[in-house]
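Good morning C.,

I know you're traveling, so I'll keep this short. The sequence:
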Amino acid sequence: MRDRMLTADVPLGPFEGTKITVYSAKGKNTRLHVRSECGQLRTANVVTAEVPLSADVVDRFCSGCADWGPRVRPTSGLGIFMGALGGVGLLHQLQAYVEPDEDVYWTQDEVLVAAELLRSARDTEDDDGRWEARREADELQERVLSLWRHAAGSLHRVQAVIAHFPWLTDWARPKLLAKEGYLETLRAQAALFVEPAGLVVAAAAAELGTPPLPADDHAFAVLGNRSQISTGLSALWRRWQYAAESGWEGPASRAFRRYDLVEGVRSNKKGHAEALEGAGRLIQSWEDEARAAAAATDSTPTVWVTASLPEDTEEPSRGDTRDVLDGLDRWTLGVVLTWTVTADWSRRTFTLKVPTLVADRLLASSSTLACERGAEVAPGEAVPEAHPGSVRPGVFDDTAVFDRQPVTFAHLRALRNYSYAADQLYIVFSTSGGAEVLPLQAIEKRIEQGWVGVIVASASDLPESLLSPWIKEVAPTPDADEGPYLSHDSAGQDDRFGTDLGLAAGAQAAVRWAHGERAKEHSLRLLAMARGVPDLRTLDTGRSGTLSVAVWEGLLTPGPLDLTPFRPPSTDRWRGGSGLPLGVLGPVQIYATNADPAFEGKGHSPFCRHTRDRGLAHSDDLLSVSDLLARDDWDWCSKCGGYSARRLTDTQISYYRAAHQLHDIAGQLDDERTYRARVEPEALRKQLEELADWEPGGHENCNWEGSWRWREVVSDLRRRAERKRLNTAP
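The tokens, ready to paste straight into the viewer:
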């Protein structure tokens, strides 16, 4: 049996009975397949069926499909469960590190000999054969330590999976016992290389204060003046203390530090040998002081300490091979190896019984382990199991919304660790905030602060009946121009003026920036969810790419808006506007990295090359178009225009275009302009009649904000156009 195959004996727990789609040839007892393209499904008449998941169904899976497990959405509860089992997940880990591997095997006697050799003095002059033996002993030490760490990581991953899916506990217990037994064997072998007395001396060295440094000693004259000698001796002390407190080896392993003092001094320079000898004496005195401090305390393990790996040590993700013990220095590893009584690898917690001096260092804030004094625990006593939150139907999308259960931090951790397709955005509901669209990281932070809510849907849950037609509409045809459309002509000359600022252009930009068909579809799903968010800054938890550039391109305009028609009239023909009302454009949101002219630094668009990453961050500023016209002292970047606006709706584009058309007509009727195109009064009159009837959203006879000013400007231009017509009549 392959070690990643789903078999009928694996408990399905609450997911038993979940409907899955299978494929098979015709026949009552034919093999079932989870993929229609399975290579073992050799028939032209494929039968598709929906069956409840059960042990009998699993037993009928072909060998290839048993490796995959049921094909379900990876972000569903069942998908997360299958992700935790397959690949290098639980089914593989339960059969790994349960006994010695014949390819990397060593005997207990070999370990004993190597450990004894390394405990001997390492600074003695030996022949080449002795040196070769020491090298081989060092290699064996590192191999044993490495295998112990990998076995510990495997056990940690197994226990972490079972904590999320506790119905696997009884089924996995026999294999867990085998893994724990082999891990203990490796720990005992690795502990043979550790010198407990050296750990105590290292703890004593860490507590030593800076000793008096003989800066006036003539032996160090080669280093320079008194200040330079003092600096060199201080550096030597720091390096020695760091080396002494970081391992378990004896003084011989640190004797070479004396060469640090004369680093950069030629070996043939007068005084070099004296300085080297003096450094050796200093180091020996520090070694003697550390050993004396260690000898003054009881080295018998008497203090119980509960130690946990740091909180920022993340649980290994699916397929991740990171070492669960990463971040621990050699001294701390030696303590764990030597004095661990019990260990709960799922919670990364150890119960230690250590000497007083070691306990003092562990309990100090500088320790790499989070430690506290613990109660006595018998060696054979089991650590209580902890299930931080099992993944069951009803947490994600396995049930109707009415039956959803509150999501916990453990559920989201399982989603991240065991599903390769966790979405960036989720629709959530809570009694405190109602329905919201939040990034996964934001949900995690809220839960840590006590938020209670349910997940309604992710981007992958959006109905195909809505998404498929939209995707086909947005996706470019093979002969279409892939480049963005940017309008450069006036609104009166270009029928597509302003369309590059709209929602439709945003969807096309999201598709254009995404690579691959699946990425394009996913970007559009995220874009559809994000469009209803009141403040787009809430979609990011730091400018680190929570959302892809494709989604941000779909949400924000590629550059600033041309607001010239809405500025007040001026004698400056380059800056003067027509004084048109902002109307439906007034509340349009504007985002910039810095919108305060008094704050150092220019404002940039979220897409500006001067920003580190593309997209919005919480620290960005939010304005409205009305705010832009309220003052004229903005300090914007000349390259990007300083800001990006939220994509315009069809109504806003219509008004934006109409305003520019009206402003363009005003320019044509301006007799003070030096360079003007030939005016056709009759054509202008017809355009003004159409513009006079503009209403937001197609509603007639509606008094929208600024409508009176709009009509006033149109009437004035009508009169000017009529005068122009009469003046040019034959």
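Safe travels,
E.
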